[in-house]
Amino acid sequence: MNPILTFIVILIGFYGLSTSDNIIKSVFCVTIIESGVILLFLNLGNFEGGAIPILNDHLVDIVDPLPQALMITTIVIGSTVTALSLMLCIKIFHHYGTVEWAEVLRREDVKS
Amino acid sequence: MSRRLFLIAMLGVLFVVFTLSMIELESLYNNYGMRYFLNEGFDDTGSRNLVTAILLDYRLFDSLFEAGILLIAVSGVIWISKHDVEEKNAQFMLDKYKTPDLFVTFSRLVYPLMLAFGFYVIINGHVSPGGGFQGGAIVATAILILYYIDGNKETNIGLIVTIEKIIYLLIILLASLSFFTRGEFFTNFFVPSANPDLKAIYLVLLNVFIGFKVALGLWTIFTAFLKEGR
Fold first, then answer.
1. How confident is the model at residue A4 (pLDDT cuts 50, 70, 90)?
2. Which CATH number applies to A3-48+62-111: 1.10.3880.10, 3.30.70.270, 3.40.50.450, 1.10.287.3510?
3. Is ipTM strictly over 0.95?
């Protein structure tokens, strides 16, 4: 896959992060950026017709296992970040009664 | 409207910068590491799955703190959600009467299969795709289905987190064991000249511990979300 496509995925995430009104949509956009980064790294050691990096008795051309090992860290950290952000969203909803950015910021102004 | 256009222009600049840096990145990349893992990986670590070999032997220091980050996130989720759980005496959000009967029946059939598949992925992490983190996620999903079968199930979060902390300590102890046999931290505790099949025992042990730790951590996150209630 072309790395340009992964850049487009990352930029779609940036665009959504900048324009979304809803806090939960912002969390999803962070997840989209993360998916783009994962695709970019998996693309590095990959080539056409490469086998999975598991050794068999017969010798085959394998893809680079190092980016795949690094990306497990990214996936685990991404899931924890998503869980924490969604829990914060629930607390914001309990406190303000809404998950819109503008609404929450306006209430913050009134309080202070 | 002008702000939207300015944003698109900024994203275009970012795209050009990314594309220019990608040319440099591709010239920097080489496959010497891949050739080393292909030639030496099995004899060094006893793992046929090279990703597991990197994750649990060459870069074990990295993986330990990856598991630690999961523990920290679980603690954070519990701490954030704690106050409401005690104040409102919240019930589980899953209502037994709203869940379709078909779903409940098939959950009962699928649940043991999912658990068995999760344990298979955990135990065979060194010869087939999978490992502790992936298998732990499958086991945690199976446990989540259990809540659909019995919605009134009581879960003691404190006990689960305590078990998770003990397992994390066991992982660090198992990883440090190599200091006494080989003189270096965070690698296989069998001597380098041992049979690769013997070295696989260490990988299976570490995979099982990491799998249980991840499953318990994700279970805690699910329970915290379910208990948030309305």
1. confident
2. 1.10.287.3510
3. no
